[in-house]
Amino acid sequence: MSDTGTGIGARVKRKEDQRFITGKGNYTDDINLPKQTWAYFVRSPHAHATITSIDASAAKKMPGVVGIFTGDDVAEDKIGGLICGWMIHSKDGSPMKAGPHPILAVGKVRYVGDHVAVVVAETKDQAKAAAAAVQVDYDVLPHVVDVAHAMGHKAQIHDAAPDNRVFNWSIGDEAATDAAFKSAAHVTKIDLVNNRLIPNAMEPRAAIGSYDSGMDHYTLYTTSQNPHVARLVISAFHGLAPEHKLRVIAPDVGGGFGSKIFIYAEEVVCVWASKRIGGRPIKWTAERSESFLADAHGRDHVTHAEMATDANGKITGFKVHTKAAMGAYLSTFASCVPTYLYATLLSGQYAIPNIYAEVDAIYTNTAPVDAYRGAGRPEATYVVERIVETAARELKMDPAEFRRKNFVTQFPHQTPVIMCYDAGDYSAALDKALDIAEYKSFPERKAASAKKGKLRGIGFSAYIEACGIAPSAAIGSLGAGVGLWESAEVRVNPVGTVEVLTGSHSHGQGHETTFAQLVSDRLGIDINNVAIVHGDTDKVQFGMGTYGSRSGAVGMTAISKALDKIEAKAKRVAAAVMEASADDVEFKNGTFTVKGTDKKMAFGEVALSAYVAHKFNSAEIEPGLKESAFHDPSNFVFPAGVHIAEVEIDPDTGVTEVSSYTAVDDFGNVINPMIVEGQVHGGIVQGIGQALAEGCVYDAESGQLLTGSYMDYQMPRAANVPSFKLGFTCTPCPSNPLGMKGCGEAGAIASPAAIMNAVTNALDVKDVPMPATPHVIWKTLQPMKKAAE
Amino acid sequence: MPAISMKVNGQAVCGEVEGRTLLVEFLRDKLGLTGTHVGCDTSQCGACVVEVNGKAVKSCTALAISCADADVTTIEGLAQNGKLHPMQEAFREHHGLQCGFCTPGMIMAAVDIVKRKGKSLDEDTIRHELEGNICRCTGYHNIVAAVKAGAANM
Question: What H or E segment, with its residue span, contains residue A51?
Answer without folding.
Answer: strand A49-55
